[in-house]
Amino acid sequence: MRVFVTDCEGPITRNDNAFELCCHFIPQGESLFKTLSRYDDYLAYVERRAGYRAGNTLKLILPFLLAFGVDSERMFPFSLDHLDLMPRALEVLRFIKGLMPVFVVSTSYEPYLKALSGLIPLPMDCIFCTSLRLEGLKMDPEEAERLKGLAREIASFPPFEDWQSLEFQRALKRLDEIFFGESALEVLGRIMDRVEPVGGEAKARALREIMRRVGVGPEDLMYVGDSITDREALREVRLGGGLSVAFNPNRYALEEAEVVCLSEDVSPLAVLAYLFFRGGREEVLKAVLNWNEDYLRMRGVPEEWLSEGSEVGILSSETLSLWVERSEGMRKAVRGKKVGELG
Fold first, then answer.
1. Which CATH superfamily is domain 3-14+86-131+198-340 in?
2. Which residues have a Cβ under 8 Å from the Cβ of 178 and sit 6 or more positions away?
3. How many helices (H) and strands (E) does the chain have?
4. Does the pLDDT of residue 279 top 90, yes or no?
5. pTM value?
6. Domain parsing of the chain, residue ranges
7. Which CATH class is domain 27-69+138-192?
8. How far apart are CA 248 and CA 156, in angstroms?
9. pLDDT tens profile 53-105
10. What region, left, alpha or beta, does residue 246 occupy, with left being phi > 0 and alpha being psi -120 to 50 degrees?
11. What is the rounded CA–CA span in Å between residue 257 and residue 237?
12. Computed from CA positions of residues 232, 234, 235, 240, in that sequence, does the dihedral angle turn out positive or negative?
């Protein structure tokens, strides 16, 4: 048996739900989120701070969302109203589900995935995501005001363009003081302890749980991801002999995947999944090297999934920089410049 596992935001939707929540509910929320996202990228990818996981942006921003009154009950209707599915996503998921078990592993908050699960052909027990344990959590008005003041301060930091710049080093020191210093607000830790984002190593653990549940090995997995939170999952599948696919990815995902796929819709994922179902990783790699309609038709790919305009390739150290340039352009074109630039 083979199994298809995919990230949500990117391969299924154009959304970045947490970013959208911040932009909508928090004054200067766009700047706040971008600063904390870059801080997250730095800690996880550059410094590789012990005990820190990629995807913890969702842990860092939750206190500020709650300070502005955004709890699970408000997240759900907002998420439902703002769902932005990738073209052909529903058709592709239905097709792949007819071939093999399908799972979603997402860093996004649970209310967003619950909204999405009402549209896609997957129940919540096939979806791994970031749960919010907010029952009994209290925040007094003074704490909320202090968090709002910190949100304004963080949002005022200049954009992080250069990890080595004095500007960034000053901001890094202040952010460390805010979140991890001795004088950090108690309410920050109290809230952040309630959420464990499913990103980085947590996504790899989710894969292991899926393998245990279904009874397969990593060579039987096809994993699709697009961002820094997918690195460990992509690496685990690639090293285990499965198929690791970076779909409209950023550099972080490209560095750990074996196959890259760029497309304005998700039709190519149906093709890759069909070939993987038929012959595993080797069948897919042969097709990537012969990516044209005649070859794919000869291999039995249904006519409805043969479409022009997509690009696929096998990643290597020699081709990485070329694909980074191409993919970042496609990522911004498909998901918009603001979301496309996020880690």
1. HAD superfamily/HAD-like (3.40.50.1000)
2. 150, 154, 184, 185, 188
3. 16, 7
4. yes
5. 0.94
6. 3-14+86-131+198-340, 27-69+138-192
7. mainly alpha
8. 31
9. 878 999 999 999 999 999 999 999 999 999 999 999 999 999 999 999 999 99
10. beta
11. 9
12. positive
